[in-house]
Amino acid sequence: MMPKRNLLSINDLSIKEINRILMKANKLLQKKNIKALSKSLSGKNIINLFFEDSTRTLTSFELAGKQLGASVINMSVATSSIKKGESLIDTAMTLNAMSPDLLILRHNMSGVPYLLSEKVNCAVINAGDGSNEHPTQALLDALTIKRSKRKFSGLEVAIIGDVLHSRVARSNIYLLNKLGASIRVICPPTLLPPDIEGLKVRVCKNMEKGLKGVDIIMVLRIQKERMEGSYVPSEREFFKFWGLDRKKLNLANKNALVMHPGPINRGVEIDSDVADDIGRSLILEQVKLGVAIRMAVINDLIKHK
Ligand code: NCD
Fold it and tell me: Is the Cα dihedral 141, 143, 149, 154 positive or negative?
């Protein structure tokens, strides 16, 4: 039997594996290549276990699994026995007893996918754990960058806003560093992670200065659900200093492109004028590429099991 493989962190992947996933996903953007794989996971069972709300990640994993021919079950906490007091581990053991091939997990606590992966026999994908990581988001972001800018080395990427609470930022920092891009984070001091020094990024506490020379701007959602107390004075004030509008975008390089993992808060971290500018905004492209990335990852993890 093949050893069990999980995708819990970007650090689980070598540069070679990352490039292979990006290439495979890129091929899956063509209908004929999807067709060739359409039955490859027939007879496999995937459970999406989401303890946090999600639109694009959940739908994208479901579509990806179904396009590969697997059976996909979506379990939300609202309708599970967690509501009746069952513990997380008991829920996982119960699902494990039904022998799924893959568990895709989202949870508001960092580290939960690690814990569960040790208790179950199937492969586990981390679909976002608290403020820790969201590896498939970083992979789809990397594919989006690769398709639009054709390179990582020498590319200047700015990650702006609520870096402290963002699993998307952390996974992207790990991944973009591996791929050779140069990363700066631009945010107020209150939204800077305490371990930022170890993350190999430049820190800018001023938007105007920070955006100079940037090729890719990744805007993050303000994670109100992870904030206790006030990290920002008010949404209006945040938008004024840290929200990306046309004027601030014009400070970056001429062909700078804008990304956001979604869901976007219009008028808080990004202005509609920028978010909806199809010449500059890659937001919907990110969503589109997400399905291909998840097909590539799922197929890799459970094809031979
Ligand atoms: C992100 C998440 O859930 O971490 N969304 C997503 O997966 N596309 C970002 C966010 O919620 O802000």
Answer: positive
